[in-house]
Amino acid sequence: MVNMKTIPSAPQFAVYVHWPFCLSKCPYCDFNSHVRHGGVDEARFLRAYESEIAQTAARIGARTVSSIFFGGGTPSLMQPSSVQTILDAIAKHWTVAPDVEVTLEANPTSVEATRFRGYRTAGVNRVSLGVQALDDGALKELGRLHTAQEALDAVAVARAIFQRYSFDLIYARPRQTLEAWAAELRRAIAEAAEHLSLYQLTIEPGTPFFGLHAAGKLTVPDDDLARDLYDLTQAVCADAGLPAYEISNHARPGAECRHNLIYWRGHEYAGIGPGAHGRLNIGSYRYATETEKRPESWLMRVEARGSGTTVDEKLTPGETADEYLLMGLRLAEGIDPQRFTALAGRTIDPNRVSFLREQGTVEMTAGGRLRVTQSGFPLLDAVVADLAA
Ligand SMILES: C[S@@+](CC[C@H](N)C(=O)[O-])C[C@H]1O[C@@H](n2cnc3c(N)ncnc32)[C@H](O)[C@@H]1O
Ligand code: SF4
Question: What is the pLDDT along the chain (389 residues), one digit of tens a residue?
């Protein structure tokens, strides 16, 4: 497990594998997820995942993999043998660290819980469950296919099988009160072991929720209530020994999701599968990669050329540095200003830092790191925009 007290500076490498299929589309979700009523040719997709892994490895060369993350979509719709095939392909091309973290995102239905043991046998050692709410009315409104009890049962199965598990909840939902959220969160914490992801509902363009919201048929908490809900979340979790290590992620110290930290600390990761993003360090350059989003188009592209890559951009030093700032300031540990300087070839504007420090939105730690304060976090986007400009 990663100990936040010893922030590793050695380069880390992760592999993200995107499985883009879901049983149904939740009305709030704008992730790259698709419903295929006619079924999915899993064997054909697997061959494409193997090709893309091989081609990425041929491009970047030897690496030691610290983390593998199966995200979605709904990776818990994959057969455990498919997960095994992908893990074998990764191990064939790269060295896998003995303490590798292998996470799989799972939807908490009873059907999916029956596959958990198979995933563990395949090599998964951490699951992240999309519980979303512990209230049946809210689950229905969110378009979920499970009840609160079914989700809790899946959490119990995860607890029995995996050493590490986490679950996601969405708050700041329509009509949610502070009292109701406090009770739901305390119940969730009682079920959580070491990690919780707590996301404020965002109304994403292009989703059914966006249309309903625009038509006045879906009301979410106003800014003041959303802020109170956020503050309550921080206080309740910190009290329970699950402080935020990132704006929406809480963990017992040492139990942070290593994969997430690799993104936010600006390390290297390969993105495999439809719509996956990667950041690859080749020579002295950093590349931003993206693959074709539509699963069938991605499949055909990989079958024709070995990879589904559609975007492959060499980042400038300034872009790399700004990305480090943008991602790193999401973390409670903040960023190392000297690393920013080394990347950007310039310092972060001291006048802007002074101004934000006076406003109380950022602070310097005793160790010389720059971080966003507790009261600055709800204003994170504005703070980052100010510093990166
Ligand atoms: C891409 S989903 C994959 C997880 C899995 N398919 C599931 O739904 O349980 C990852 C997480 O993003 C969060 N999420 C997705 N859309 C969101 C939105 N509009 N607002 C807040 N959280 C959202 C949910 O908590 C979800 O569990
Ligand atoms: S929230 Fe999860 S299950 Fe729902 S559509 Fe998005 S990825 Fe699929």
Answer: 444 444 546 889 999 999 999 999 999 999 999 999 999 999 999 999 999 999 999 999 999 999 999 999 999 999 999 999 999 999 999 999 999 999 999 999 988 889 999 999 999 999 999 999 999 999 999 999 999 999 999 999 999 999 999 999 999 999 999 999 999 999 999 999 899 999 999 999 999 999 999 999 999 999 999 999 999 999 999 999 999 999 999 999 999 999 999 999 999 999 999 999 999 999 989 999 999 999 999 999 999 999 999 999 999 999 999 999 999 999 999 999 999 999 999 999 999 999 999 999 999 999 999 999 999 999 999 999 999 86
**Burial class of residue 176 in the structure, from the number of CB atoms within 10 Å of its CB (0-12 exposed, 13-18 middle, 19+ buried):** buried
Rounded to the nearest angstrom, the distance between the alpha carbon of 47 and the centre of ligand 1 is 27
Strand ranges of the sheet holding 95-106, from the earlier edge strand across to the other edge? 244-246, 249-251, 195-200, 164-171, 126-132, 95-106, 64-72, 13-19, 268-272, 277-282, 285-291, 309-314
| pTM of the predicted structure, to 2 decimals | 0.96
Q: Ligand 2 pocket, 362 CB below 6 A?
A: no
Atom of ligand 2 nearest to the CA of 24: 5
- Residue nearest (by alpha carbon) to ligand 2 atom 6: 29
Q: Is 75 in the pocket of ligand 2 (CB under 6 A)?
A: no
Q: Is 74 in the pocket of ligand 2 (CB under 6 A)?
A: yes
Ligand 1: residues within 6 Å at CB? 28-29, 31, 72, 74, 105, 107, 130, 132, 168, 170, 199, 201-202, 204
Which residue's alpha carbon is nearest to atom 8 within ligand 1? 130
